């Protein structure tokens, strides 16, 4: 990364981190906390088993007449778990390879940052929060095909990702690259999900034809 880009990244991160107030500290800490989003994840898992939830352009809706609902839902849940697993593992690998210090561990920024959540681990490129949330957002938006849900889940991912810059746990480029990685992984898992549904749908169609 060239010096001018590093300096720009530092300046943007310092500017966003400098927006601190007690109120926004609490908001950003809430957004960054992983456990508070467990009810959201549980709700998404349940929605995979609700047939009317899928939009008419959803692959699950298109294949739904041929595949049992429990199987469609199970495949969706497994797809989300796979997406989470991939984003988490790839993030950890890249962090070790890039070895880029988090803002709190950057000597050039010593004493210039507000750290409500502490410094965190040593390396921060790229953001696992951004990769995980954008991976989930893109994958589930493509599966469900509900416009308002898509808008909500992408804005949620953006808000969680922004909180990581505000809290100085990541530089801006850490978050942007994490978001891009999450989107690409979410797309890849979605096309795998779509392919598997298509294969199973054809299997059930052949079985029905044999019994008709």
Mean pLDDT: 89
Low-confidence stretches: none
Strand content: under 5%
Number of strands: 0
Report the helical percentage. Answer: 55-70%
Shape annotation:
elongated
**Cα radius of gyration in angstroms:** 20 Å
- Main beta sheet, described? none
The helix tally amounts to 8
For the termini, the CA-CA separation is 64 Å
What structural class do you assign from the helix and strand content? mainly alpha
Q: What kind of assembly state do the chains in view correspond to?
A: single chain
Order of helix and strand elements from N to C terminus: HHHHHHHH
Set down the secondary structure blueprint.
Blueprint: H1 3-17, H2 22-32, H3 38-47, H4 59-63, H5 69-98, H6 128-144, H7 147-166, H8 172-211
Helix pairs in contact: 2-7, 5-6, 5-8, 6-7, 6-8, 7-8
